[in-house]
Amino acid sequence: MKRRISLLLSIIMLIMLFSSVPAFAYQNGLLHGKQLSKSQVGGDPIFLRGEWTDGNESTYVELNKDVYAWYKFDTVRTISSTKFLVNSNMDIIFYDESKNVIFRYKYVPSGPKSVQQINFPTSIANVKFVAIFAPYDVLVYEFDVFENHQGDVPGAPTNLTATGGDAQVTLNWNAVTGVKGYNIKRATTPGGPYTTVASDVYGTTYTDTTVTNGTTYYYVVTAVTADGESANSNEASATPKGQVTPPSGGRAILVVTLNTGLEKEFDLSMTEVNAFITWYEGKAAGTGPVSYAIDKHDNNKGPFKSRKDYVIFDKILTYEVNEYTPVTK
Q1: 53 to 26, 60, 76: CA distances (angstroms)
Q2: Highest mean pLDDT among 74-78, 145-149, 198-202
Q3: What integer is the mean pLDDT of 145-158?
Q4: Does this model's pTM top 0.85?
Q5: Where would a tag sit more exposed on the chain, N or C end, judged by fewer CB atoms within 10 A?
Q6: Do the Cβ atoms of 146 and 127 come closer than 8 Å?
Q7: Which residues contact 252 (CB under 8 A, 6 or more apart)?
């Protein structure tokens, strides 16, 4: 009975131990779980343990000075990036099928060991062997190479929208899977240059309250993971503006100034003015028709049943309401 209890406790401890092994920041590269070979310069090759390709930062393989460690692919590859965790200098070398050097990357650490991701500006084609050379004694905790480093970087957020309010702009976008946060970037000209106004934003909405009414702002959003930052989302723009309190009672002269500089005046009841303001505010928030019809009943010249003037939302620069009280005779 004691033996059974002891065995059960041992199994539980093993399960707890392996379940607590920290996951490495990346997995499933071309070398993940593979066994590499090594040899001293001029010596015979031997197989290495797999601690540097197991996805666990706490295990390592020790390479002594002037030792090569390498892996031969089953077929030629095109390498776009590499990631590794080491504590000293090392060289990463890529060879073709004839063992000619295609590319050599020399890594010199600038501080404490940390995960390094190197995205090569030009992909390295026709790679048959990849090797590490240790000019000094080095501990290699993890090492991998990738055919497409873009697969590690998150995709850009999509469907970004911007809605202006009173001294604020509210942004919304579609979520990106697996991100730890989003960066919000803003400009006052289309296409940037953008300035980051918020970092590590959680969720898919953000309200920018550092804006000035009457100024048009242009926004993009990026997604951030442990592997890096995505490209920019689509650009969205909005113009914050103050609340308009519709006047009540009586009549008013509605003056609409178009972006061409043309002014249109309409003598309307306050009910008609308020209806125009409701349409304009709704369209500014993204709802409603693009045009608005204003009756010209006070200037109905000719044998017409009615005359309407249609104003287009994106042609309106400003509008003014001049309320007055009609004189009764």
Answers
A1: 10, 9, 20
A2: 198-202
A3: 73
A4: no
A5: C
A6: no
A7: 267, 268, 270, 273, 321, 322, 323, 324
Least confident of 100-104, 276-280, 284-288: 284-288
Q: Which tokens is 68 given?
A: 């090569």
Is pLDDT at 22 greater than 50 in this prediction?
no
Side chain identity at 287, as an amino acid letter?
T
Per residue in 166-188, pLDDT (tens digit) is 899 999 999 988 888 999 999 99
CA distance 118 to 126: 19
Please state, in angstroms and rounded to a whole number, the distance separating the CA atoms of residues 129 and 76: 8
Residue whose entry in the numeric block shows the structure tokens 């304009």: 280
HEC string of the chain equals CHHHHHHHHHHHHHHHHHHCCCCCCCCCCCCCCCCCEEEECCCCCEECCCCCCCCCCCCCEEECCCEEEEEEEEEEEEEEEEEEEECCCEEEEEECCCCCEEEEEEECCCCCCCCEEEEEEEEEEEEEEEEEEECCCEEEEEEEEECCHHHCCCCCCCCCEEEEECCEEEEECCCCCCCCEEEEEEECCCCCCCEEEEEEECCCEEEECCCCCCCCEEEEEEEEECCEECCCCCCEEECCCCCCCCCCCCEEEEEEEECCCCEEEEEEEHHHHHHHHHHHHHHHCCCCCCEEEEECHHHCCCCCCCCEEEEEHHHEEEEEEEEECCCCC
Structure tokens at 135: 């000019």
CA angle 290, 292, 296 (to 5 degrees): 155
End-to-end CA distance of the chain: 112
Question: Kindly report the CA angle at 91 between 132 and 104, in degrees rounded to 5?
Answer: 105
d(CA 201, CA 246): 36
